[in-house]
Amino acid sequence: MLNEWVEVSLPVTTEQEDEVAALFVWAGAMGVEVRDTTTLFAEDRGTTRVVAYIEQGTEKAFLERLNPVLAASLDQAEEELSARFRMVPITRQEWNEFWKKAFDVQRIGHFVIRPSWKEVVPEPGDTVFVIDPGMAFGTGLHATTRLVMEAIEQLHASGFRPTRILDMGAGTGILSMAAASLFPEARIWAVDNDPDAVETAAEVIANNGLADRIQVDLSWSETPVDLVLANIQRDVLLELNPLFQRNLEPGGRMVFSGILNDQIDEIREKTNLPVVRGWHEGEWELVVFEKPATGGQS
Known about the structure:
alpha/beta
């Protein structure tokens, strides 16, 4: 089997692990884990290693994006930092076997996410999704995904009822499924430019009985929507912002996640719409914008 992915890792101190992991995601990692002596893949005593998974062939672009920012963050010369990285090719089978060992049942609000090999007894009001993580981002493990799911629940609790929803950067389709469960009248587009993600999302959505509610695709034909879900990194959010606003109906909402603490002010300023609410978890920020019903901007 061909090696399709590369494991890029860096030894760090305990104090550095959260910031380094956040920057790995920001630079485009499809998945990130932190290893120490207590984790499934254990490190030597006293060692902590942050591990990113990227597509084979993207190593140069990933490091060119990551190194200057990470070197400044760690106060280290780029050349010294580059020498500390370890790269190991891995196969799709190895990736999937890792997730089978590492992925457990999770609860986010009233949503319960379980892999097919784990059973769960739902509590009253629970919505259970079955997701076997593959090569796509968005199993609920990451803070940015959890923040969006919590925001969707808050929007529902506030009485907001969208009928046309765009999930851009859909990953496994988990956000689309959460929206479908809360807004049963809504039509939903789950879009991702990664063919692996689209294949995974289509399978996950079908296995959860929502294929007739959610359209999964590599692209999206512009059409009016009243809710945008975008859990993607800062530069892509800024690039797609005009597209989102052009198609957002007056009174509609945009939920942006995947934003680091030091990026949120720029996102708010360049979006230039009223902020309904914001959340944060660790290094990560989420913001909800509303397009005024009059069509004007603040």
